[in-house]
Amino acid sequence: MCGIVGYIGDKSALPVLMDGLKRLEYRGYDSAGVAYVNGGGMGIYKTMGRIRDLQGILPEPLPEARMGLGHTRWATHGAPSDRNAHPHAAGGVVVVHNGIIENYQQLKSRLQSEGHEFASDTDTEVIPQLISRYMKKGMPFEAAMRRAILDLKGSYALGIMSDQAPGKLFAVRNGSPLVVGFGEGEFFFASDIPAFLPYTKKFVFMEDGQMFTLSKGEARLELLGNGGGTPVKKPEAPGFKVVEIDWTAEMAEKEGYGHFMEKEIYEQPKTVMETMREWIDDPPGMLRALGITSRMILGWRRLHIAACGTSYHAALVGKYAIEALAHIPVDVEIASEFRYREQLIEKNSLFISITQSGETADTLAAQREAAKKGAFSLTLCNVVGSTASREADSVLYTRAGPEIGVASTKAFTAQMTALYLLAVALGTERGRLIAAEAQTLIGQLKKMPLLVEKALGSARRVEEVARSITDSSSMLYLGRGINYPIALEGALKLKEISYIHAEGYPAGEMKHGPIALIEKGLPVVVVIPMGSLFEKTLSNIEEVKARGGRVIAVTDEPASLRGRADETITVPPTHPVLSPFVNVIPLQLLAFHTGVLRSNDVDKPRNLAKSVTVE
Ligand code: AGP
């Protein structure tokens, strides 16, 4: 998904924009560009490739400019190329865009029939062309811009400027995230917070249908279509929500690690602790703070959770935990499926969305569908002020800090932490957990940061295993019960980081098909903690071995697997319902080390984006 940056103030704009783009690299991109406007006109530099390639085409010395736009492109319409890179311009108007203009073909045909010549294959280019069309009809630039935006259908976050309005920068949000940074006499805007964290911690999260006009010392906010607008002279002006982000720029840096993904894997003891800290000693109090009353809870017949990718796997763990501890049925769905089917949601039920970014299009749509049906919507989200957090009835924040690596790791264990807190709280409120049981679980949860730390101690062993699978073309991941979602998550991690095909499967389901895949040497990772399912899972290991498969066991009981598994990765023992915390760690490390051994771009894996803000 694309990244947008904009700057207006007293600094030289291009270095600030380039710095902002570098901090958005984690979003995944295939080309990049910057543009400036100064008293002498405008300049645009753009190229396919990386930020360093863009740096290489900038003139020396850099043109002096106090305002500009920047963009990293993740191609949706038009192949990655220099001509399709943003910014796009026409008639002295420059635009950068994140999202999809769904009616661009129709607009483009009409503009071409009126003689407009297009320089790219992108949907974005219709925007400056449309503005230029209205200017040709006699509208001044700003009126033409507002009018043109009304013609657009789809999702867009836009940065707009023109040599007809030097000293003014425009930020527009409709369906794709955009945050405005308030500095000292200067303004920034970006698709995500890390871009400008070194410059300011004060941000406004724009809402759909809003436009900011940013000029030196003044930010004017307006709703598109009603013109005029309310001048916002100071961030604290009434009716205006400025969020102070408590992240530091360093938190968004690698801090000595070679990759964000590795740093984030090793941050998990801390982020699990941070996520539980506020409510671990009073889970029922957390429900009150979320606006969830005993009467609401007693009225619920089932819970609904929707999410995507890794967040979906966290939701599955949450299902097992909530059903085990609170005895209330939990329906878990992939958000892109949930949003398009006939959702049978009872009025006043609880709908939970789980989303690290708070901007995933399918998850937001699912949340909106559930709200339409009258459900109470709670989002488990990692980004303060994100769309999910602003639209839900209530937010339970994970405290994982900025997750830069495209592969979600620390957010996953933070999501599980929040779900366990919820499970204990609901179990207590529903009288399913007596105080002693709740205290035992809370005591075990409090140990989790230490146990995750111990699980990280398997890294050297995992690296050895990674060397043995680096040339594999396919793998199976098996697990049972609450560790079945961990098998799914381990397989997803391996796929998205090493590009090796991997499939997660319930171990008990092997005989219903996948066992046909077992052949000599096929690596099969089996998550097999001691507990009620240990023997059953051991028999699955035997089935794999009998057909020549190579078993890599993740277990807290290595002695019982001697002579049974080919490789054993040991994790610390813990309460069975909490075992996903320790079992997922070696699987994250396995994906990371295998990706590095295969010389992949581990933080920005091919084809992937950090947050899928388009369908
Ligand atoms: C996880 O490693 C993936 N990058 C991806 O599946 C991700 O979990 C999914 O896109 C959901 O993102 P969200 O949590 O921000 O909604």
Ions, cofactors and other ligands present here are: 2-deoxy-2-amino glucitol-6-phosphate
CATH topology heading of the largest domain: Glutamine Phosphoribosylpyrophosphate, subunit 1, domain 1
Tell me the total number of β-strands.
Answer: 25
Derived structural class: alpha/beta
Strand order of the largest sheet: 3-2-4-1-10-9-11-15
Going by CATH, the architecture of the largest domain would be 4-Layer Sandwich
- The CATH H-level superfamily of the largest domain is Aminohydrolase, N-terminal nucleophile (Ntn) domain
Helix segment count?
Answer: 19
Estimated share of beta-strand residues: 15-25%
Mean pLDDT: 92
Count the domains. 3
The residue fraction in helices comes out at 25-40%
CATH class of the largest domain: Alpha Beta
> N-to-C terminal Cα separation, in Å?
11 Å
The biggest beta sheet reads:
8 strands, antiparallel
Radius of gyration: 26 Å
Can you walk through the features of this model?
This protein has 615 residues and is an alpha/beta fold. The chain folds into three domains: 3-244, Glutamine Phosphoribosylpyrophosphate, subunit 1, domain 1; 260-456, Rossmann fold (3-Layer(aba) Sandwich); 459-597, Rossmann fold (3-Layer(aba) Sandwich), CATH 3.40.50. Helix content is 35%, strand content 23%. The protein contains 19 helices and 25 strands. It has an eight-stranded antiparallel β-sheet, covered by helices on one side. It has a seven-stranded antiparallel β-sheet with strand order 5-6-7-8-12-13-14. Helix 4 (126-136) crosses helix 5 (141-151). 2-deoxy-2-amino glucitol-6-phosphate binds next to helix 10.
